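[User]
Um, C-alpha cells okay?
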Amino acid sequence: MPVLLAVLISGTAFARAPITSIAAVRDLAPEMAEKGQPVRVEGQVLWVHPTGNGFFLRGGEVSIYVRQPRGGPAYSRFSPGEMVRVEGVSNKGFFSPSIYADSVELVGSEPLPEARPFHDFEFFSATIDCDWVWVAGRIVSMRVYSGGTGGENITLAVQHNNSMLDVQIPQTEGAEEKVAELMFSRIRFNAVAGTQFNMNRQVVGRTFFVNSVDDFEVIDDYKPRKGLRVLPIHELMRSGENDRLPVGTHGLVSHVEGKHIYLRGEEACIKVTARAVPDVVVGDYVELEGFVRPLPISPEFLAREVRVVGHREPPLPVAMEVDEALRHKWDYFPATDLNQELVEIEALLVDVGESFGLSTGERERTLLCRHNTYLFEAKLPAHVEIEGGLKPGATLRLTGICNLTRSEERRWRLYIDWFWIQLRGAGDVEILVPAPWWTAARLLWVLGIGLGVLALALVWVGLLHRTVEKQTGIIGDKIEREAILDERQRIARELHDNLEQGLAGMAIQLRGSQRLLELNMKRRLESIACALRLAGGNTELKNHLEGAATEVEQDAAKNRRAIEVVQGMLAHCSEESRSSILDLRGGLLERMDLPAALRAALEPLAEECGARLVVSVEGEPRRLKKVAERNLLLIAKEAATNAARHAKPSTLSVELVFADDVLSLRIVDDGQGFAVDHLPKAGRFGLQGMHERINQLNGSIQIKSALDKGTAVGLNIPSTKEWELD
C-alpha cells in the first residue's frame, strides 16, 4: 500500500511538472495545450506587439508567442533582445500552441540572433510559424492603421521576387516619413514570420513583423555605371532589361488620382505610382525615374522622381469600338495598347449597382452597360452624383481609363479576357438619350397590376357565376315549390270537394239511419205494448210478446253499436282527411320548425278544452326530413286531440328532447285517463295510426294511463341520422 501511494504521488507530480522548453510547448497537440500545462521557460524577446498584450519569445532555434493574461500588466515595458523568464500555462493558440504568462521576469539582454533567409517556397509553409528570418524586396505601397487588434502600425506591401509580402512595423514618431523616403527602394530586413490563418487552423498567408523602420537596410540605392537608361513606355521590361535597376520614361498625363498618374506614350500607356502626391495636372508632359513592376497585362511604373518638362493640350480619348475584330485581336494576339488608355465609348445602361473597389479601397458605383451585343462594367466613385440621375435604359457616352483583364483559364500565355472602365468623375458620363419611361421595372409593375386586375375580374366573374347559379337554384327551387304547392292545393281541393264531402255525407246518412233505427225500435216496442194490453189473460201470448220486445231491444243495441263503430271509423277517416288536406295546403312544417309547429298545432286543441299548453325543448333543435316531422306532428296532434275531447285535462304538456342521435317526444295530460286494456273501439283506430306512424320512423311508442291519473304518450327514435337533412 505505501508503494502504491508513492507511485500515485510521483505520477501526479510528474504529470504536473512544468515544461521548460519552448520546443516542447510547440510540440504539444492542441488538445493537450488547451489543458493548461504548466510552463517555465527562458528566452529572448524578438518582437513586442504594439498594444503590449504579447511578444514573440525565442529559445534555441524555436520561437513562440507569449500572451498577456487578461487584466495583467502590459509587455510594452520589454524590448527586443532582452532575456526573460516566463511562467504560465500552455494554450492551443489560434494556429500553433502559445503561452499564457502569469509572470515575466527580466534576466538580461543580448543582441538579436542572426536570422536565416526566407525562401519563396516557404510562403505557405506551416512549419516556419514564428521563425526569425531575413527578407529582401522592394517596397511597393504603404498603409497606416490606427486602433483595432493590431494597434497603431504601418503595413507595407513588399515585392519579394514574384510574391507580394505583408510587412508590419509599429507606428512610431517619424516612421511614416522614413517609410515614404524608402518607397520603391529595394530593402533587406529581419522579421518574425507570422502566419495568417482561418478558424480551422489552416495557413492562408504570411505577415512579417519588423521591430522598427530603422531595421530596413537599402540594398539598391545606387546609379548605373553608364547613367540612367530612359526608355519609351512600350519598351519597358523588354528582353535584356533588368527590372532591379532604376530606369526612366516619359509621357503625357491623361489622368491624376492621388498618388497615381496615368501616362500616354507613343505606342502604349502606363499606370504610375509616385512616392507622394505629384504636382501635375492633365496635359503635363513628365519625365519619370524609378522602377518597373511587372503586372499581369502590362507593367506599372514606381516613380521615385516626377519632373514636369512641359504642358500640352489635354489628350483626347480614343474612340473604342467593341466588335468581332477586337475580340479576335484579343483572342489571338496579346494586344495591350488599350490597357490604362483614356477611351470613349457609347453604351446602353443596363443596371446600376454598388461594390467595394479593391483598387481604390472605397465604395464604387458599378454601371452595367451594353455596347452592341457586349456587356461591360464602368466604375464610378459612389459619392459622385450625375445630373439627371442614372436610370437603366439611358444611352450614355462614357470617358475613362480602360483596364484590360487577363484570362485565368488559359494561363500558358497572355490572353485578354475582357475590360472595364474606371470613370474619373461626373464629367465622364454624358447622357445622350434619357431612359424611356417604359422601363422593365415599370413594365413589370403594369403587368403585375394588369394581372392583379385580371385576377380580381376573374374572381369577381367566378363569384358572380356562383351567385347566379345560387340565385338560379333558389329561383328554380321556388318555382318547383310553387308548382308542388299548386299541385298540392289542387289535390287538397279534390280531397275536400270529393272525399271530405263524401265522408260528411256518409256521417249524415249514418246519423239518419241511427234515428230511423231508434224510431223503428220505439214503434215496434209501442206495438208490442199495445198487443200486451189487448192479450188480456192469455198468458202464452203475453210471454210471446214479451220475448219479442226483448229481441227488439237486443237487435236495436246491436245495430246501435255497429253504427257507432262505423261513426268512429268515419270520424277517424275524416280527421285523417282534414290533416292530409291541411298538410297539402302548406302545413305548419312548411313555415316553421317542429317545436314551433307543435305549439301552433296544439294551442287550438288546448283552448278547446280550456287546458294550459306547456311546450319544452331540450338540446339543440335540428330539422328532420318532412316525412319524419309530419309523422311526429300528427302523432302529437292525435294524442292531444284524444286528451282534449275525452280526458278533460287542465294542463297539456309536450316535451321534445334532441340528443346526439336520439329524439324523444312526450305528450302528457292530467285528465281523467282510461284503462289501457279496455280501450273503446273508436279510440283503437287512433292508437293504431300512431303505431303505424312511429314504425315508419323505426321508433317506438309507449302509452301509460289510469283512471283519474291522466295519460302519457311517449315516442322514442333511437337514431335520427336517417331522417336528418343533408
About this structure: The two ends are 92 Å apart (CA to CA).
